[in-house]
Specification:
Helices cover about 20% and strands about 30% of the residues. The strands form seven sheets. Strands 1, 7, 8, 9, 10, 12, 13, 15, 16, 20 and 21 form an eleven-stranded antiparallel β-sheet that branches. It binds (2R,3S,4R,5S)-2-(hydroxymethyl)piperidine-3,4,5-triol. (2R,3S,4R,5S)-2-(hydroxymethyl)piperidine-3,4,5-triol (DGJ) binds next to loops.
Length: about 750
């Protein structure tokens, strides 16, 4: 594959060309590549379909400054935005005020200890204990396509889909090279950023902080949107004012977490679903992270995303390179809808891989809420028999099939079949399930170890812990040290044995506690601060093996529900269990927050039994179906024991799944109403890319008098098309449906729902 390399000289030549055909082709090339270096003005311009991002090189020392990110521009001569003509001047003109310059200049990747007192992206300590670091531009390279990041999940794109700018900066005194990488995509308004840090010197350097991205902007009266929650209450949308000083979100849990989320949007105060400016950043990373803002004395905002830095400390030996995880930046001039659309398309096209990337997923039934630990072969087969007759396509055997696990006190780490429960073994059970025409899936929790397990008795030092201190238990379990190769190899050996022993077509990979007591038996003292990140690298390595050596297996990630629901995990698994809260009404808020940045195809959503096991609420079976249809769709109940009238609805729900799933997986998603804001109504819409078909789901949370007729304004339709509303004698124009609205009749009762299907004629 030919990689086009445009260095500084070639770009400059192309720009200065007077020959018209040459100028034309260079203009075309620039357009295609999406990245141009303007030699004379010393400006980089990165373009996506609707956004521009500009970086400038300043002064004789070659400071790298952030000029602009926002709505797409033709103009690149914007270095006045760096305000280097205002006091304080650049150091070459006013060296007595160097600190004032550094503390105000919009630095593209700020460093610590030399006079910029705002948050730094890179903090380095030398062997001697000094912290000063200053980076200056040295060279750059623009290439078609995008490279992988060693050991980490990363977005991808072919040479004609994206291009990459790598800016090399150096600190001469430390002999440190830092490469800032930016990839822009032809069809999506996302810029993927990461950083590579290379120690070219002869002494060790200690990274104390290494952010994936930093962005300096004027504070345009921004609000901050983040996603917060708890176990079984993940990703609720929260909006607050951006204030002076520090604000942010983060996790120290060794996983992205239920409580906070590796995402933040900065939005202008007037921004809503359809209007206003929205900047988004999300980490393509599943471990501890932080995303922070700092509003400075000059009302500029410095925005940073990357690995957390309270536990992190990385010893970078001479010749070694450290790679940060990737951050995915986006900008929308059309409110939250624009950000959502960009992230959905980007994740579907440039993050998710594998056989199920664009494929309908089998409808599954999972036995967790049906049986918990109390099952055997006969019980599972009785569920499978009933389920297969109703049209369910896969049985997933959840926690409790291995070691001597009859409760959650034991056996994690002992991944061999409990033959008392699965009489005849796993292969026999799978064969029987396959005979029913169903696929079979299995649950693992590979990262964990119970103290009551054979593995722990043989290798107590394989659990993460600090010598001399009893590690804190959570759900009676400890975390395996995945920075230890031996551990990863042993768990892989056990998993592979199971996966090869039967026709397994799905794996649910669970993770039920955060990391604590960070200590590894195999890391040198100066490397203990690497544990949390090395742990993630071990997890990623094992998941990579799983998806490459068993490419036919559909992997679903999970972490006590949605505790590790992030773009990093989506690189390995096209779907993630959204929450242990399966109550249809609670799910409205969880799925709204999740769908704000992740495509519906990634949201694990099942119909469960009532009263709901998490909240005790009773909702109609029909409504539970509508809510689950917004995600991957499946069942989480004992189908042999639910009421007959519920069971009778299953074939109809399955028909709806088959009817709408292409639309749900591939279409454009819009939020129409939010039960978080209006406790009466929740509504979302999906429109096919060609705008010929649309599905609108309405859930009325509370019925109320005199509000039985409701209007909803739809989105994303073709103004010029006429749409037939299925089941009603009604044809309406796209413009009428979007700007005048659609009236909902007879919405009576609490927790009732409806799907409206529009087809263009
Ligand atoms: C937490 C998961 O989210 C549940 O779905 C279930 O798999 C349990 N763990 C099993 O322990």
């Amino acid at each position: 594959m030919k990689i086009k390399i445009f260095n500084r000289e070639i770009c400059a030549r192309a720009l200065l060309a007077t020959n018209s055909s040459c100028a034309e082709s260079s203009a075309e090339m620039r357009k295609k590549m999406g990245i141009v270096y303007f030699e004379q003005d010393r400006v980089f311009k990165l373009d996506t379909p609707h956004t521009s991002y500009l970086i400038g090189i300043v002064d004789e020392e070659n400071f790298l400054g952030h000029i602009y990110y926002g709505r797409k521009l033709d103009e690149h001569r914007l270095t006045y935005l760096l305000r280097t003509n205002e006091a304080p001047f650049v150091p070459s003109k006013n060296s007595r005020e160097r600190v004032s310059f550094l503390d105000a200049f919009p630095m593209e990747y700020p460093t610590h200890g030399v006079g910029d007192y705002r948050e730094s992206a890179l903090r380095i300590r030398t062997e001697e204990g000094y912290q000063a670091c200053a980076l200056f531009y040295v060279s750059h390279e623009i290439t078609a396509g995008k490279k992988k990041i060693p050991g980490l999940p990363a977005s991808f794109g072919k040479e004609d889909e994206c291009s990459t700018l790598e800016i090399t900066c150096r600190d001469q005194i430390l002999d440190l090279t830092v490469v800032l990488s930016y990839s822009v995509f032809e069809t999506t308004d996302v810029i993927a950023r990461h950083v590579e840090i290379h120690n070219g010197g002869e002494k060790k350097l200690f990274l104390e902080k290494a952010a994936s991205m930093s962005l300096d902007m004027d504070n345009r009266n921004f609000d901050m949107i983040t996603l917060h929650g708890s176990w079984a209450r993940e990703r609720h949308v929260e909006r607050r004012r951006l204030c002076r000083g520090f604000q942010g979100t983060g996790s120290l849990r060794g996983e992205s977490g239920h409580q906070d989320h590796p995402f933040m949007a900065l939005v202008t105060a007037n921004a809503g679903q359809e209007e206003g400016e929205v900047y988004g950043v999300q980490m393509m990373y599943s471990g501890s992270y932080e995303i922070r803002t700092e509003v400075s004395q000059y009302q500029s905002v410095r925005w940073m995303a990357g690995l957390e830095n309270q536990n992190f400390r990385w010893a970078l030996a001479p010749g070694e390179t450290f790679y940060t995880p990737e951050a995915l930046l986006t900008y929308s001039a059309r409110g939250l809808d624009g950000m959502t659309a960009s992230y959905h398309d980007f994740i579907r096209n440039h993050v998710i891989r594998g056989e199920y990337k664009d494929k309908k997923r089998p409808i599954l039934i999972n036995n967790w809420e049906a049986t918990y630990f109390d099952f055997d072969t006969d019980k599972l087969l009785s569920i499978a028999r009933e389920a297969s007759e109703l049209g369910i396509e896969m049985l997933v055997m959840d926690d409790g099939w291995f070691g001597k696990r009859n409760n959650d006190d034991c056996s994690l780490g002992d991944w061999y079949v409990n033959k008392d429960k699965l009489r005849g073994g796993l292969a026999c059970l799978v064969e029987e399930v396959n005979k029913l025409g169903m696929k079979f899936g299995i649950w693992f929790e590979p990262e964990m170890i119970s103290q009551d397990s054979e593995l722990y008795r043989a290798h107590p030092d394989w659990a993460i812990s600090v010598p001399g201190r009893a590690p804190a238990l959570a759900r009676e379990q400890l975390v395996l040290d995945f920075s230890n190769r031996e551990v990863v190899e042993e768990i892989w050996r056990q998993m592979k044995t199971v996966l090869e022993s039967a026709n397994i077509e799905y794996v649910k990979w669970d993770m039920n506690r955060p990391l604590s007591d960070l200590g590894s038996a195999v890391l040198d003292p100066e490397k203990q601060g690497e544990l949390s990140h090395r742990y993630m690298l071990g997890v990623y390595e094992l998941q990579e093996r799983l998806v490459t050596q068993f490419p036919n297996i559909l992997l679903e990630n999970c972490s006590g529900g949605g505790g590790r629901f992030d773009a990093g995990m989506m690189y390995y698994s096209p779907q993630i269990w959204c929450s242990d809260d399966t109550d249809a009404i609670e799910r409205l808020a969880i799925q709204e927050g999740t769908a704000m940045i992740y495509p519906l195809s990634t949201m694990g959503a099942h119909i469960s039994d009532c009263p709901n096991h998490a909240v005790g609420r009773i909702t109609p079976f029909e409504t539970r179906g509508y809510v689950a249809l917004a995600g991957t769709f499946g069942y989480e109940l004992d189908v042999t024991r639910i009421p007959g009238e519920d069971r009778a609805q299953i074939p109809g729900q399955i028909a709806l799944y088959h009817k709408y799933n292409d639309l749900v997986r591939e279409g454009d998603y819009y939020r129409i109403a939010s039960s978080m804001k209006d406790h009466d109504l929740d509504c979302w819409q999906v429109v096919s890319k060609d705008k010929k078909e649309s599905m609108v789901t309405v859930i009325q949370v509370l019925g109320s008098v005199n509000r039985r007729s409701r209007m909803i304004r739809l989105k994303g339709l073709d103004e010029g098309k006429q749409y037939r509303i299925e089941g009603e004698e009604l044809v309406l124009g796209g413009d009428a449906l979007m700007y005048a609205g659609l009236q909902l009749h007879n919405m009576k009762g609490d927790f009732v729902g409806r799907i409206i299907h529009l087809i263009s004629i």
